[in-house]
What does this fold into?
Amino acid sequence: MNEIIFIVEKDIEGGFCAHALNHSIITEANNLDDLKINIKDAIRCHFNTEEETPKIIRLHMVIEEVFSYA
It folds into this structure.
């Protein structure tokens, strides 16, 4: 595997939450710098060998905004 994709969302209680597509990897942190560190740690724990471990980590930032027409 060469790449892994994480969906990153702001947490309601503050900070950020990230979950991987196609893998059961979820992590969170108070800021984006710490989130990147936590993602790397979670990937190391999830994959068994160096060959399985993705070399590229892609983050998709999701921003939800609600507004009204009126």
